[in-house]
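User: Predict the complex with spermidine.
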Amino acid sequence: MALWYDEVTDDAVRFGLKVERTLFMGRSEFQTVSVIETSAFGRALLLDDLWMTSERDEAVYHELIAHVPCTTAKRLERVLVIGGGDGGTVREVLKHPEVQHVDMVEIDGLVVETSKLYLGTIGSAWDDPRLQVTIGDGIAWVKRTDLEKYDVVIVDGSDPVGPAVGLFNEAFYAGCKSMLRDGGCFITQSESPIMTKPVHLEMIRTIGKVFGEAHPLYGPVPLYPSGAWSWTYAHTGVDRFAVDVVRAARIEAQSKYWNRDIHRGAFAVPNHIKQALAEGAL
Ligand code: SPD
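Assistant: Here is the predicted structure with spermidine placed in the model:
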């Protein structure tokens, strides 16, 4: 008998993958952590039984969350990644040779340990000497006043339940903004514009309140509810479309998904989102 795992959303929708074998199941003080080998998507990571990333579709997510801010920030020397325990986001950030230092602050050490053991194709830059991994609380990190500021702040968290819930509020976004140099950029994953539209809209509004403006961008991540996914970008004084051509050309030569056309097109906002934002609807 075939074994399948389904992520169920709102007791109404499910996305399932056929399981070849379970590679790891464990529990940290924060959540359950599992890695399964699937027939169609390769190895996949789940946190609290929610799909987080898979070998097959991770490039869309990680390239967008990394290269949209990293090609538009005025300078690109210091980067902060909050979350991102599978290593995919820092892998992409570290493809930019201008980057001198990356702080990755992940709350759950078990996610990092498990990813290093089982998801080596996703987290392939753990040994880069520019990377400093801290197992700790990203919310506390952005309250610190003793740190040199960053050019890019990336929030690669999970969904707004469990340990990631504090990554979805005004105080946290204000902390992220306070960490940026002039000309710096911020981006966070911002859930599904279809399946979790109220959360998505609220994030755009709250980030806009903190930064003055907020720009959602969209892309396909089949592993996530509805497959339609979003990120929200904000900045401290740059143009989101003005990519640095040297950085962009270098990344285009090695990326699976991101390029300058995708970058521009990803910022196109669907009418139902524009209307909801204009009307103040959820
Ligand atoms: N519904 C899943 C949302 C997950 C967002 N973060 C994924 C982590 C990939 N590095």
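The chain has a mean pLDDT of 97.
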